[in-house]
């Protein structure tokens, strides 16, 4: 399980891999926080939950990460603990995090650019481009 | 992609023919010198232009500018027209920052006499024009007021004392797109926008004070009120979180629309819907509402910048005023009439990182610009020159009335961060007489001049190609960034 930044001229891109789909989603959230230089504060823990449907796994991943972009910008929250269930075209997430202490650079949006979740011998892999 | 795959039309024009890939509906036309093309070919932007050439309902060419670079889905620096009403509209071909654009305001304040006041001016601009990640703007609107902004754009600002009639006359579409529908904008998008109006944001957005360094077209410069050695101000920003959310919402919902309409695309970020479909109409109305938000946002920032200029210069000179030169979008989808392959037709021109550049006599230009053509504002990379150009008759014939929008990136953000230290860059800029107010040093590093192409080379290319003419070159003296 892990991620690496992929060179992109205008935006940010990360390749992410994990043994199962929920872990891939969580690792994608970790990659997003790392790229944007998001640092959580030491304040009280907060929790949020949401569920969504989409035509496929890729759309669920974009919806999940877009939710995190929204909370970061609107409520200054970052999350690092996820109870995440993916089943077919359905996603349910309960997450815990904290107020953000600092951010180097904001992510505006999560794109579908060449987005494909691929299954391989080790589990799942994908590459995401973030608009910054 | 290999340069040998391109057909060279002239020193500054190239074509990628449709036989390069079987799913291309139209050819790609590229404005670039060989030197710029050799930079462009290093990333995936030409592949993205070919992907864009597969959109249903395209007419003419997909056109790409010399500042083009890799984006997501549609390349940055791209222009594409789809036939109205059956052709498609694609949110990804307009971008997340709907109506990201530039406003230029000019003064008759002489740089030499103002030199000692520029530090104070930069501090006041930084105070009155909030910038940075998620920063709140100058106003907090209630939902009813926000709906008025979405419907009326700069007209709302005029009604509320933040604009003049002259500002609106010198704004693309008078700062207010018809057909905007706030009901097509999600509550989430409105929530993001409600507190951000009147703010610059982060990324490559900025407020910059420049001095008019060189004039190339005396007549056009005089009409615009640009005088050598005088201060001007640029505002570069867009529709903030509201626009980002509108695009996110519709790219998500269009994932189903392409299935419904049987549209097959090489990249899901290019998802689209016919303009005459319920989905297409809804996005068009929401996109126009976000564009109106951006026009009002830049208008509020201009109002705040005027306050900073007044406090700095009014005690010293009667001529402290900032008057608007023009405000122009570079991420937008617009219904326009163009002659394409000998036939006049109404098309939706998608411009993503490309500027409208209408020539003399074009509809919608204020009376004083009818003779000279529409001002085209080209911000350079931080610390380098910016340019003011005008659109030409050639741009109407050859580039869908469009030109470049900036220098264009050439280095990835990750490489820029590795090679450039934000604090040393700030020192270097200040040594060169450029005052810097920046919220994020890593953010500053990503926008280092070395990460961009040579803006002078980009401008020479569009000028040599004839799709814009040079009017004035601007030199930065103060930069305010998030």
Kindly describe this structure:
The complex is a heterodimer of chains A (132) and B (482). In chain A, the strands form two sheets. In chain A, strands 1, 2, 7, 8 and 9 form a five-stranded antiparallel sheet that branches. Chain A has 132 residues and is an alpha+beta fold. The longest helix of chain A is centred in the middle third of the chain and has 19 residues, at 57-75. Chain A has a single domain (2-131), classed as Archease domain (Archease, Possible Chaperone, Chain: A, domain 1). Chain A has two helices and nine strands, in the order E-E-H-E-E-H-E-E-E-E-E. By secondary structure, chain B is α+β, with helices and mostly antiparallel strands. Chain B has a single domain (3-410, 452-481), classed as tRNA-splicing ligase RtcB (Alpha-Beta Complex). Chain B has helices at 34-40, 45-52, 111-114, 118-128, 143-152, 154-159, 165-169, 187-194, 218-224, 240-260, 278-313, 393-398, 413-419, 422-431, 441-446, 455-465; strands at 7-10, 13-16, 28-31, 58-72, 74-83, 88-89, 101-110, 206-215, 230-237, 273-274, 323-329, 331-340, 343-352, 355-356, 375-378, 386-391, 402-403, 435-438, 468-481. In chain B, strands 7, 8, 9, 11, 15, 16, 18 and 19 form an eight-stranded mixed sheet that branches. The relative contact order of chain B is 0.18. The mean pLDDT of chain B is 95. Chain A binds chain B through residues 5, 7-12, 37, 54-55, 58-59, 62-63, 66, 69-70, 72-74, 76, 103-106, 108-115, 129, 131-132, and chain B through 43, 45, 69-73, 76, 92, 95-97, 133-134, 188, 191-192, 201-203, 241, 244-245, 247-248, 251-252, 255-256, 259, 267-269, 271, 409-415, 440, 442-443, 446.
List the helices and strands and how they pair.
The complex is a heterodimer of chains A (132) and B (482).
Chain A lengths: L1 E5 L5 E7 L2 H16 L2 E2 L5 E8 L3 H19 L1 E11 L2 E13 L6 E2 L7 E3 L2 E9 L1
Antiparallel strand pairs in A: 1-2, 2-9, 3-6, 4-6, 5-6, 7-9, 8-9
Helix pairs in contact in A: 1-2
Chain B lengths: L6 E4 L2 E4 L11 E4 L2 H7 L4 H8 L5 E15 L1 E10 L4 E2 L11 E10 H4 L3 H11 L14 H10 L1 H6 L5 H5 L17 H8 L11 E10 L2 H7 L5 E8 L2 H21 L12 E2 L3 H36 L9 E7 L1 E10 L2 E10 L2 E2 L18 E4 L7 E6 L1 H6 L3 E2 L9 H7 L2 H10 L3 E4 L2 H6 L8 H11 L2 E14 L1
Parallel strand pairs in B: 3-4, 18-19
Antiparallel strand pairs in B: 1-2, 2-3, 4-5, 5-13, 6-10, 7-9, 7-11, 8-9, 8-19, 12-13, 14-17, 15-16, 16-19
């Amino acid at each position: 399980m892990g991620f690496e930044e992929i060179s992109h001229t205008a935006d940010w891109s990360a390749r992410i891999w994990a043994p199962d789909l929920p872990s891939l989603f969580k690792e994608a959230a970790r990659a997003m926080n790392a790229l944007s230089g998001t640092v959580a504060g030491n304040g009280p823990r907060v929790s949020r939950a949401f569920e969504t449907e989409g035509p496929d796994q890729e759309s669920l991943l974009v919806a999940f990460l877009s939710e995190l972009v929204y909370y970061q910008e609107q409520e200054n929250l970052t999350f690092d603990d996820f109870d995440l269930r993916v089943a077919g075209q359905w996603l349910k997430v309960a997450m815990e995090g904290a107020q953000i202490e600092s951010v180097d650079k904001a992510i505006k949006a999560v794109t579908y650019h060449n987005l494909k979740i691929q299954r391989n011998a080790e589990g799942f892999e994908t590459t995401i481009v973030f608009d910054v | 992609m290999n340069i040998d795959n391109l057909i060279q039309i002239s020193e500054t024009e190239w074509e990628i023919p449709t036989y390069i890939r079987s799913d291309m509906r139209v050819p790609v036309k590229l404005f670039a010198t060989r030197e710029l093309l050799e930079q462009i070919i290093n990333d995936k932007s030409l592949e993205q232009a070919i992907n864009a050439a597969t959109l249903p309902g395209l007419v003419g060419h997909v056109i790409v500018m010399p500042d083009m670079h890799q984006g997501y889905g549609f390349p940055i620096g791209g222009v594409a027209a789809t036939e109205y009403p059956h052709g498609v509209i694609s949110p990804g071909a307009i971008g997340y920052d709907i109506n990201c654009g530039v406003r230029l305001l000019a003064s008759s304040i002489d740089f030499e006499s103002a030199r000692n006041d520029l530090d104070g001016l930069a501090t006041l601009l930084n105070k009155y024009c909030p910038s940075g990640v998620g920063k709140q703007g100058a106003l907090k609107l209630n939902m009813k007021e926000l709906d008025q902004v979405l419907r009326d754009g700069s007209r709302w600002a005029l009604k509320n004392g933040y604009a003049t009639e002259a500002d609106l006359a010198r704004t693309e579409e008078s700062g207010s797109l018809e057909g905007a529908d706030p009901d097509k904008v999600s509550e989430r998008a409105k929530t993001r926008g409600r507190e951000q109006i009147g703010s610059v944001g982060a990324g490559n957005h900025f407020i910059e004070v420049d001095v008019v360094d060189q004039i190339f077209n005396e007549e056009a410069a005089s009409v615009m009120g640009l005088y050598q050695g005088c201060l001007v101000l640029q505002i570069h920003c867009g529709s903030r979180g509201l626009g980002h959310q509108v695009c996110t919402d519709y790219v998500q919902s269009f994932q189903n629309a392409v299935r419904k309409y049987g549209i097959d695309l090489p990249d899901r970020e290019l998802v689209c819907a016919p303009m005459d479909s319920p989905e297409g109409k809804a996005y068009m109305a929401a996109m126009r509402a976000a564009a109106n938000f951006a026009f009002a946002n830049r208008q509020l920032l201009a109002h705040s910048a005027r306050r900073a200029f007044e406090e700095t210069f009014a005690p010293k000179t009667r001529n402290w005023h900032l008057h608007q030169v023009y405000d122009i979008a570079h991420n937008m989808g617009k219904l326009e009439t163009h002659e394409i392959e000998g036939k006049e037709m109404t098309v939706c021109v998608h411009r993503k990182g490309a500027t409208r550049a209408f020539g003399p006599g074009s509809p919608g230009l204020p009376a004083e610009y009818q003779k000279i053509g529409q001002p085209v504002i080209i911000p350079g990379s931080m610390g380098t020159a910016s340019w003011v150009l005008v659109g030409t008759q050639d741009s109407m014939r050859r580039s869908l009335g469009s030109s470049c929008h900036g220098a264009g990136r050439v280095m990835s953000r990750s490489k820029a961060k590795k090679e450039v230290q934000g604090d040393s860059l700030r020192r270097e800029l200040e040594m060169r007489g450029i005052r810097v107010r920046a919220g994020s040093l890593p953010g500053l590093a990503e926008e280092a001049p070395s990460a961009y192409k040579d803006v002078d080379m980009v401008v020479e290319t569009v000028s040599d190609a004839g799709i814009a003419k040079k009017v004035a070159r601007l030199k930065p003296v103060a930069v305010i960034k998030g």
